């Protein structure tokens, strides 16, 4: 039987599902963000922005859940074949991924909070999300727009590096690093 929690050699179902769901939403958010600012139809752009905000709040909730789950479920150690430098870099890379996945939705939330347009945010049309207690101004909106843009591009670059590292482990090093995030642990492991 496969386990919900991590074992010493593999991740459990909870971490695997959160990992891939967050990855898909994160990459999807980047694509949606690029498309929504290039759309010429104001109505379509508005709808895409609302969808982008909805998925941003979903991403924030999922990453908080993942971090909480991670704090209670130790990650399996890297295989013995992984070198010292990579062993030291891996936790820093994961920390950076978590930081960007939190910073991006928060910067987006800050952006809509300071906007002088005062358009309410309604995640998936379920409720009105309150704004952060920030002062509305064109200057603040410009700052948070830039911050959100730079964080998005840096975050997607970090995700690309993460994917490249996983593929390197799988195809070149032929170790279990990627497989353990695909196939869940079994309770008896």
From TrEMBL:
Ranges where the Cytochrome b561 bacterial/Ni-hydrogenase domain occurs: 10-183
Gene3D superfamilies the record matches: Transmembrane di-heme cytochromes, Chain C
Subcellular location: Cell membrane
Transmembrane intervals: 12-37, 90-112, 150-171
Predominant cellular place of this UniProt entry's protein: membrane
Keywords: Cell membrane, Electron transport, Heme, Iron, Membrane, Metal-binding, Transmembrane, Transmembrane helix, Transport
Family membership noted in the UniProt record: Belongs to the cytochrome b561 family.
Name of the protein: Cytochrome b
Biological classification of the source: Bacteria, Pseudomonadati, Pseudomonadota, Alphaproteobacteria, Hyphomicrobiales
């Amino acid at each position: 039987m496969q386990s919900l929690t991590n074992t010493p050699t593999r991740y459990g179902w909870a971490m695997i599902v959160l990992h891939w769901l967050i990855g898909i939403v994160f990459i999807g958010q980047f694509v949606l963000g690029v498309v929504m600012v290039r759309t010429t139809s104001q109505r379509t752009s508005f709808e895409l922005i609302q969808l982008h905000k909805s998925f941003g709040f979903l991403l924030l909730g999922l990453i908080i859940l993942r971090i909480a789950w991670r704090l209670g479920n130790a990650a399996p150690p890297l295989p013995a074949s992984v070198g010292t430098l990579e062993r030291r870099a891996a936790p820093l890379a994961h920390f950076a991924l978590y930081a960007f996945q939190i910073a991006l939705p928060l910067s987006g939330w800050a952006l809509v909070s300071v906007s002088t347009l005062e358009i309410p945010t309604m995640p998936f049309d379920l409720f009105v999300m309150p704004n952060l207690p920030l002062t509305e101004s064109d200057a603040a909106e410009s700052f948070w727009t830039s911050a959100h843009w730079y964080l998005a591009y840096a975050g997607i670059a970090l995700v690309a590096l993460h994917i490249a590292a996983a593929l390197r482990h799988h195809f070149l090093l032929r170790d279990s690093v990627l497989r353990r995030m695909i196939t869940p642990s079994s309770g008896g492991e």
